[in-house]
From TrEMBL:
The keyword Flavoprotein applies. Residues 246-260 form the Glucose-methanol-choline oxidoreductase N-terminal domain. InterPro entries: FAD/NAD-bd_sf, GMC_OxRdtase, GMC_OxRdtase_N, GMC_OxRtase_C. SUPFAM superfamilies: FAD-linked reductases, C-terminal domain, FAD/NAD(P)-binding domain. This is FAD-binding protein. Substrate binds at Y432. Pfam families: GMC_oxred_C (PF05199), GMC_oxred_N (PF00732).
Length: 494
């Protein structure tokens, strides 16, 4: 066994948040060791913003499947997650959404001092430079020329009465907008490229293709990690360990290391019943239309370029819907249709359903049990139904009929009645890829980390990634994960 690695801080996972933590700590003079399960190499399909779908179920995807989802006709849902230096930012759609300021004010109101919008807004600015206070570490692409079909979708949305919002990361979230992307010169820009790569070999030692199988303890102090690389066991000891393995990987690593519900684990180093619970995700239901000719797709941009934030019910304080619009038909396996068309993915971003992640065994090679309990809350079915109706209205608006000859294919007649709509939602719901909340931050009995991201009851161990979100924010989760990385680095650097 190799046991001669040394570091001040070990970061587990070189994804969206882990890359930020490593960079900032290296800049602060710490010796950082980053251990990542996936490879570190150039991948044309990662670089090209138009090739996201090719990465799913590839060797760079953990390729998780849920257990059969009772409220979704027993289907096993695919949950892609990045297994590569870059993490899920390496196979995501690159959409940059900070979330609604009220999301963070709520985190703070739950007892998480230091996490209000006022506190976190400067951390977002450090990453994206969107507030005019100087450049950020990432480029956020705005003001590009969208595909003609995207302009038509936005116009169609306006025809249904939705306001155009030129900047959903600005003063107001609601309305229909063109997306902002983490793209530089036509290539995907991950935090691994922008933050981590410049400091590898200069304060950071990167150990790729190494699966961390457990955390090492001396009593209640975490003193290092143990991983497997090329079939051999290796270890490193350090003053601090920061787990950034993501909303699935982080609770799994804690559970394998004996941190979790003592009854389920059959004894535990630390009894923390919340580990793996509170799993939240956003959900999508497709509304698909044929077009009379193939929409042109611009090289260097994803096939989705516009989205909207809206409310499912009048009187709701925050937007809870976020449909996003693709210039291609995204058929489910049971669907059939012509090769070209458009998809308006009816999105729910304030779900009530909660699920969990559990171990299937203690082996690092066995996939965990993932049960998001999608649609277990009736409110989610209802809200997705409203989102589908909204997308149907947009597809049927004069602009899309006139310029593209758009004709609705799905749900089409399947959702004529209210019952039909509900069963279509159950038959076709898919993840929006925003799993969060499984090691939630807080001060209650279910909390796993405190507001300084320290694991309750353990010394020398923090978590910094999407798993610590008490509630999933109103919008895509990459920017918030990166903000969490920035915050963790501040807390660690002191
Ligand atoms: C297909 C897809 C599309 C998405 N689209 C968008 C989008 O357009 N915009 C947006 O804002 N969000 C999007 N998201 C969500 C967003 O990418 C994630 O919320 C974000 O990347 C989470 O960051 P993280 O740091 O928590 O985890 P990750 O970035 O997933 O990083 C976790 C890292 O830990 C590593 N790891 C896990 N376990 C171990 C272990 N035991 N040992 C060693 N390493 C380990 C993983 O390999 C991975 O590299 C998308 C996600 C997916 C999957």
């Amino acid at each position: 066994m190799r046991d001669d690695w040394t570091a001040d801080v070990i970061v587990v996972g070189a994804g969206s948040a882990g890359s930020v933590v490593a960079r900032r700590l290296a800049d602060a003079g710490r010796r950082v060791l980053v251990v990542e399960a996936g490879p570190h190499r150039a991948e044309p399909a990662v670089d090209d913003p138009a090739r996201m779908h090719e990465l799913w179920d590839s060797p760079l995807d953990w390729g998780y499947r849920t257990v059969p989802q009772q409220e979704a006709q027993g289907r096993l849902l695919h949950l892609p997650r990045g297994r590569v230096v870059g993490g899920s930012h390496a196979l995501n759609a690159m959409i940059w959404v900070r979330g609604n300021p009220a999301d963070y004010d709520r985190w703070a109101a739950l007892g998480n001092e230091g996490w209000s919008w006022q506190d976190v807004q400067p951390l977002f600015a450090r990453a994206d430079g969107l507030d005019g206070g100087g450049p950020g570490m990432l480029d956020v692409l705005t003001g590009y020329e969208p595909d003609p079909v995207q302009r038509s979708i936005v116009e169609a949305a306006r025809q249904t009465g939705l306001p155009f919002n030129p900047d959903y990361n600005g003063a107001r979230q609601e309305g229909v907008s063109f997306m902002q992307f983490t793209i530089r010169e036509g290539r995907r820009l991950t935090t691994a490229a922008a933050y981590l790569a410049p400091v590898v070999g200069r304060g950071v030692t990167l150990v790729p293709e190494a699966v961390v199988r457990r955390l090492l303890f001396d009593g209640r102090r975490c003193v290092g990690v143990e991983w497997i690389r090329e079939g051999a066991v290796e270890r490193c000891h350090a003053d601090e360990v920061v787990v950034c393995a993501g909303a699935i990987g982080s609770p799994v690593l804690l559970l394998r290391s004996g941190i979790g519900d003592a009854d389920t684990l059959g004894g535990a180093v630390v009894h923390l019943p919340g580990v793996g619970r509170n799993l939240q995700d956003h959900w999508l239901v497709p509304v698909i239309a044929s077009t009379d000719r193939p929409p042109t797709l611009t090289r260097g941009l994803p096939a989705t370029q516009s989205h909207l934030f809206w409310r499912s019910r009048p009187g709701t304080r925050l937007p809870d819907l976020q449909p996003l619009h693709f210039g291609v038909p995204l058929y489910e396996p049971w669907m059939d249709g012509p090769p070209h068309g458009i998809s308006l993915m009816a999105g729910l971003v304030r779900p009530e359903s909660r699920g969990e992640v559990r171990l299937s065994s203690h082996s690092a090679w066995d996939a965990p049990v993932i049960d998001p309990r999608v649609l277990s809350a009736q409110a989610d079915v209802d809200a997705l139904g409203v989102a589908v109706r909204l997308c149907q209205e947009i597809v049927g608006a004069p602009e899309l009929r006139r310029t593209w000859g758009a004709r609705e294919l799905y749900p089409g007649p399947l959702a004529k009645s209210a019952d039909g709509l509900r069963s279509y939602v159950r038959q076709s719901v898919v993840t929006y890829h925003h799993q969060a909340g499984t090691c939630k931050m807080g001060v209650d009995d279910e909390a796993v980390v405190d507001p300084q991201l320290r694991v309750h009851g353990v010394d020398g161990l923090r978590i910094a990634d999407a798993s610590i979100m008490p509630d999933v924010p109103t919008g895509n989760t990459n920017a918030p994960s990166i903000m969490i990385g920035e915050k963790a680095a501040d807390l660690l650097a002191g």
